[in-house]
Design goal:
This is Peptidase C14 caspase domain-containing protein. InterPro entries: Metacaspase, Pept_C14_caspase. It comes from Hibiscus sabdariffa (roselle). Belongs to the peptidase C14B family. By secondary structure, this protein is α/β, with parallel strands linked by helices. Helix content is 33%, strand content 17%. Helix 4 runs parallel beside helix 6. The protein is globular and about 50 Å long. It starts with 6 loop residues before the first strand and ends in a 20-residue tail after the last helix.
């Protein structure tokens, strides 16, 4: 039996400060999460990588596609049996449709990096399938459409029949349409003379959006600087990407695949600082549970009730195996029963 392993984390916050679709609470989310991991979950600060797009951030700490994928790849490669891995993303999410002749319609969920590149569910699935046996990998994504982020069928807490109140006026969705991304990329591609004409063709003809945006991103970032989803078919085949097995990976999503997650301005229910509604509810639940241990199911259930109580029309979900439903969040201790009042954050 292996002893207790290391705890490693990659925390990513994207506010997109210079874009018209900027957010406000994402960097605060990961800054506070880092404190919780170190103070309450025994993470060594040296094993927690924080990437943001805060103005003035050095290049190596930017929440770019290259930096995020490098950090995740290194974390997975260095992990040993018994290690606990955690990836927290706070920022925009999107979906990309693909409709090819003779092929079934499919939709890919993705998170949007600060350089408007896309990390797709395929990228995350490939990382998870490379993990050594006995390694735990938990993803917490506070982004729109995050319910489908690892394309996992085993949904332990999923769609709700409870009708929540309309989204509060102090929240805005953390979702970015693929059209908005394409418009911004078109100006970038025009500047560097790469792929702009192809974007115009996509808009005019309604061509395969997945292929189109992949072509433009490849023109901007190069073949090795984009999602596996945009790689040539023969290269993807070599990677042997498969569906995840039930026991692989744990996803705590801020909402269902067809929903949006709220970004809350300072002065709203999150107090003096802007935050993601989902991340803030998670942080408050963890804070109130000091001296107790939350299972994955307990955490998501309490967070969902808190969000519904505050009028957010988003439903956090839990995707994992039956065995991991009652496992401690981030594998800290054996779960114990506790109570958090539903009217409190």
């Amino acid at each position: 039996m292996a002893g207790e392993g290391k705890k490693r984390a990659v925390l990513v916050g994207c506010n997109y400060p210079y874009a018209k679709f900027r957010l406000h609470g994402c960097i605060n989310d990961v800054v506070e999460m880092e404190k919780v991991l170190v103070d309450s979950f025994g993470f060594d600060a040296n094993n927690v990588k924080v990437l943001t797009d805060a103005p003035g951030s050095p290049f190596q700490n930017l929440s770019s596609f290259a930096n995020i994928m490098t950090a995740l790849t290194e974390m997975v490669a260095e992990a040993e049996e018994g290690d606990v891995l955690f990836f927290h993303f706070s920022g925009h999410g999107t979906t990309i449709s693909s409709l090819e002749p003779g092929q079934p319609y499919r939709e890919n969920e993705a998170i949007v990096t600060c350089d408007l590149n896309l990390i797709t569910d395929t990228d995350l699935r490939y990382l998870i399938q490379k993990l050594k046996p006995g390694t735990s990998f938990t993803i917490l994504s506070d982004s729109c459409h995050s319910g489908g982020l690892i394309d996992k069928d085993k949904e332990q807490i999923g769609p709700s029949t409870v009708k929540a109140l309309p989204n509060p006026v102090y929240g805005k969705p953390r979702g970015l349409s693929i059209g908005s991304i394409m418009q911004t990329l078109q100006s970038v591609a025009t500047t560097i003379g790469s792929g702009a004409s192809h974007l115009g063709e996509i808009a005019a003809t309604g061509a395969n959006i997945l292929q189109g945006i992949g072509s433009v991103l490849t023109g901007i970032h190069g073949q090795k600087g984009v999602s596996i989803e945009f790689q040539p078919q023969h290269e993807r085949g070599v990677l042997n990407i498969r569906s995840l097995r039930e026991e692989e990976g744990i996803l705590l999503s801020g909402c269902k695949a067809k929903e949006t997650s709220a970004d809350v301005m300072a002065g709203g229910v999150t107090g003096e600082k802007a935050h993601g509604a989902f991340t803030y509810a998670v942080l408050k639940a963890l804070e109130k549970s000091k001296g107790h241990t939350l299972s994955n199911k307990e955490l998501v259930s309490h967070v969902r009730k808190a969000l519904e109580g505050h009028g957010f029309e988003q439903h956090p979900c839990l995707y994992c195996s039956d065995e991991k439903v009652y496992a401690p969040f981030l594998a800290s201790q054996h779960p114990q029963k506790y109570n958090i009042h539903e009217d409190e954050w």
